């Protein structure tokens, strides 16, 4: 999506801002200026007053490229688009945090109440349109400004194209652009996760496919939209529909110099290993972090990822104190400042991507995602030897390993430094299907779309097959014909040792067996201990339990209780009475706490009728014994028949004749 040449604000002058609707998409729009004396300053924030003072500082510092990472280029105007992720201060005050706090998850099981996203979100995303204007007449030869969209949602498919409209529009007409864009966004319908939406902006139209609910941080609203069929380990029917975050990231273009290492990066991201990504520019490091997160779709990514991380982030002070050899918290950090190579020596995996010669592009050469297009010199796909052994390549690899990541201080190169023993072998059949078309930027971009689709489909299938052995823990059951729907079975408890023992006997499955090395079981062992497993497993299991509860609840509504009890011995009839009573009390508790289902009144009436039906077939002495409980007697009131209990007042008990 590019800005329409005829885009105008005149046709929308009557559009009024709806603050409540705006918050469903955007926290605020900010204009940030780099001041020579005072540093980064927020000139405007619309709507005002939505950020704390600490958040304003963090947003301001994150909205400009690191000066250390920028190379001299004297053309007049440079634009770039990138994004960052910061922790919200209402939820976590800035302080030194431990690794367990960095990965804390909301592990509530079945949320029913819908609270605002602002109260639930622990992170905020900032999408930046940065403009550097070089002018020798100005102090230091130029000026910088950034237009920033702040949101609780990582909707890159929406906010990157929106920035391509909003950024140039602001530099054309000033602050009126913020008010106009905010008013237009407030007119949008609420986000529908997993669906393609058409969102009007003036006389332009954004078409964006939002990520599915199961890839987003859990809150009451997204949880209710999830279904068992849309989540791993089940392969989706339509694989062209996005299954995770940042499905628009340029996986091929970002990692084209490291394609053989994609399977290693997939493993590291899967098990939640700390990774430092270094690139010459913010757009390149953002695209790399987004690509890594998207690589493990449809797995819920619970690793703390920062597409553009700076030394001003409050958590840097904690990370900087970690000594070499100390355990680094599970994070993926995208940086451009080479200082991090020395400051974060304890991080075990370092990835260098991008090309310094493609630092910035003129406005006419930017791709729609804000990433750098064009072929990085020396790293074209034809230069990637997959079948031939090259002594030169081997010597270069040995030298790179010997020099270590600090060699990037003198010369930028694409490389990975990691001692991790990978269990997955690169799939050369997938690499051989990729197309190299370094003829022109237009052909290059279209071929990247094809290559990205090939890679994304493969890793989607790879992740889904890896998660397949957990499938039995998420299967839903329904009552068989003639059986009681009131005895809903509980799910089997998960034991890591038992799971690994069974998996070792059974094997990883045909798809993975031919792609994995002999240490494949270690990958599962690391995954079980990593930060991604338990949040995904508990959430996936909660969705399955919710689905099973819905199915059994519907079966209880349709149950023919007289027919059931006609085939039961007396002891089972008593058990059935107790089971119906438990379900009835549960429904009443949900009504009292205002978490009831829509049809709760109907099912309560049905359960009361069923309870009376079972009660009336029980022997008189059993009825009198049951009525000794005042709560139970209250449930059974309402019928004209009067039953006299010894030493107690009269209690009305309903009688329903067996059919």
UniProtKB/TrEMBL annotation:
Q: Where is the UDENN domain?
A: 27-538
- In which domain of life is the source organism classified? Eukaryota
UniProt-listed PROSITE patterns: DENN
InterPro entries for the chain: DENND6, Tripartite_DENN
Q: Which GO terms describe its molecular function?
A: guanyl-nucleotide exchange factor activity
What are the coiled-coil residue ranges? Answer: none
Give the record's GO CC terms: recycling endosome
Name the family. Answer: Belongs to the DENND6 family.
This chain belongs to the protein called Protein DENND6A-like
Species of origin: Cucurbita moschata (Winter crookneck squash)
Gene designation per UniProt = LOC111440867
